[in-house]
Amino acid sequence: MRALICGAGIAGLTLAWHLERMGWQVEVVERAPALRDGGYMIDFYGPGYEVAERMGLAPRLLEARYPVNELGYVDRVGRRTSRLVMPESFNRVVSLLRTDLVRAVHDGVRAPVTYGTSVAGIEQDGEGVTVELTDGTRREVDLLVGADGAHSQVRKLAFGAESGFVRYLGHRVAAYVIDDEALSRKIGTRYQMLTVPGRMAGAYALRGDRLALLFLCREPDPTLPEDPAAWLRHTYGDLGWILPEALSRCPDPAEIYCDQVTQIDMEHWSTGRVALLGDACQAVSLFAGHGASMAMAGAWVLADELATAGAARVPDALAAYQRRVRPAVEEVQAFGRRFIQWMAPSSGLRIAARDWMLRLASLPGADRLFLNSLTAGGHGLIVTRAGGGLRG
Ligand SMILES: Cc1cc2nc3c(=O)[nH]c(=O)nc-3n(C[C@H](O)[C@H](O)[C@H](O)COP(=O)(O)OP(=O)(O)OC[C@H]3O[C@@H](n4cnc5c(N)ncnc54)[C@H](O)[C@@H]3O)c2cc1C
């Protein structure tokens, strides 16, 4: 069996990892010129972490993780306004760079990854899919998977324009990593954030005297700025704290992650032998905080259903995969929408309420309860209720 996977992210590479171990002939195409460094920090746990453990990746992820001892809010002069010390019991959350997770999966994949390439055209009949690539070559495969993120090209070709599936959550996000010993030491292993109504900036120190920065802004217009660095300086330059220095070190636009905050909501995740995977069909947004975990779990379930159904019944396997994953995704997406006001409060009153909650949560015994309330539940189901086809 032959599969072409578009997108060498968490979802695409996890699927490649499993399919090749099932004896499939797999090829991956990726639009970016190479696997990239930097990016943004993610909290990785839940069903995706369970899958990573089964793939034997846990030791590597624990090595790549960053200790986050505290979540804290500061004011414009850097004074702490509220904080939550992370309890020991919460150590199943692995905080790491998205890139480090991608690289960990990538290093276990033997299938060729062709960079700087995407899908240009798709034709299918009951027997297979003919895929035209942007380099002008063609592939005949039994399965094409679009794991190419929230702005998926495979989705556009197979299902239609993004506007039919996107739910814009009214915010813009940006992130970048800088080398700065002094700022990195100043922030340390506390995730520090500054919020004013409609705007949030966060910082966390990385190994090697680097600093990861995250910006979140309420923005009714989904159009992205042409120059994200100029937009960041204009929007956050007056907020004080470490921001004037951090913004003066803004890298080239190509090194800045800048996007709309969206969810993807689709009734059908596959058509014939073309399937979508990860953010391409189930983006939950950074407000839900489970996207990487859900992407990895989705890849496992898809491989499991393909192993169970066998070669002759690929479309049935794709439908079964959606039936298993989609209810959990809807649950996490609903959680993400509820979480917007917590992460990006729209008024001074809401910021004061959040600080008050954090003080309450710091009382003995309340910390764990509080952190659990910030976690969408129920999605463990999708990897434990295995179809039985995939081992491990
Ligand atoms: C700021 C931020 C914070 C987040 N925090 C968390 C968190 O704490 N926990 C968590 O679990 N999740 C978090 N997420 C979500 C998580 O990063 C995503 O859900 C996850 O990366 C989805 O994986 P994916 O493989 O489906 O897509 P992606 O990671 O988007 O990967 C898609 C891949 O496809 C490639 N690609 C794109 N277009 C094409 C094309 N046309 N042709 C070929 N290749 C293409 C891309 O270059 C990329 O390599 C966060 C997201 C953001 C933005």
Question: SSE layout and pairings?
Answer:
Layout (H helix, E strand, L loop, with lengths): L1 E5 L3 H12 L3 E6 L10 E4 L2 H8 L3 H7 L5 E5 L5 E6 L8 E4 H9 L6 E3 L3 E6 L4 E5 L4 E4 L1 E4 L6 H7 L6 E14 L1 H7 L2 E7 L2 E8 L3 E9 L9 H9 L6 H6 L8 E8 L5 E2 L2 E3 L2 H4 L8 H19 L4 H30 L4 H14 L4 H8 L7 H4 L8
Helix pairs in contact: 1-4, 1-10, 2-10, 10-11
Bound molecules: flavin-adenine dinucleotide (FAD).
Protein name: FAD-dependent oxidoreductase
Organism: Streptosporangium jomthongense
Pfam families: FAD_binding_3 (PF01494)
Write a structural description.
This protein has 392 residues and is of the alpha/beta class. It is built from 14 helices and 18 strands. It has helices at residues 10-21, 47-54, 58-64, 98-106, 153-159, 181-187, 228-236, 243-248, 279-282, 291-309, 314-343, 348-361, 366-373, 381-384; strands at residues 2-6, 25-30, 41-44, 70-74, 80-85, 94-97, 113-115, 119-124, 129-133, 138-141, 143-146, 166-179, 190-196, 199-206, 210-218, 257-264, 270-271, 274-276. A hairpin with a 2-residue loop joins strand 13 (190-196) and strand 14. It starts with a strand and ends in an 8-residue tail after the last helix. The model has no long low-confidence stretch (mean pLDDT 90). The protein binds flavin-adenine dinucleotide. Residues 6-12, 29-32, 40, 42-44, 98, 118, 147-149, 153, 173, 175, 214, 278-279, 286, 289-293, 295 line the site of flavin-adenine dinucleotide (FAD).
